Amino acid sequence: MTINEFQKSNKNNGFTLIEMIVAMSLFVIVISISIGIFLRTVQSERGVANQAAAVSNTALAMEEMAREMRTGNGFEICSGGNSCHDDSPAGSDAITFSYQSGSGPSNLAYEVTYYLKAGQITRDAKFSGNGNQQAPTGPITAQSVNVDYLRFYSCGTGGNAPPRIVIAIQAQPVTPTSGFTGAFNLQTTVSERLYYYEQNPVSVQVTSQFSCPKP
Hints:
By secondary structure, this protein is of the alpha+beta class.
């Protein structure tokens, strides 16, 4: 084999520098696009998880309030922010009512207040007839959830009919993920158990009367 034939055979078996640069550039572009798609997918998944956790926690707090209201009485709704509670922001309400835990000689009677404090739904309670001794109190929503407003509405009050209390909440994750609006609204209606009203007809006292919001 001559030298010229050897050089020709080597040229046919390899890649030129330009071909290597083009191939590496295409590889880098494909990897960059793939990484971007992967990161956006992870971010979206994190956003969905944060949103779902915030909705779940807020719904749990709403159910806790509703559970006590169903067996409560003597409801009083206050609208006007700080006029309701020192820590309540403007545009939010507070509700106070009596709640009895259990039955029989071992039952405990509370005066319960729900209001908004520093972006968290807070429960204040004190034992009735026990020198206003404080019962366990504190926020009922997680620190990862920021509640924008808490509203209470009364419907169908008066006479022997049990009152219906509408709870409306707007909240969002404390650290919303890019691409997600974050804020969501929850609403539920609570009706006092009729058994109590068959024996003790009362009505709801509302310092600022609201009509129930339309669905």
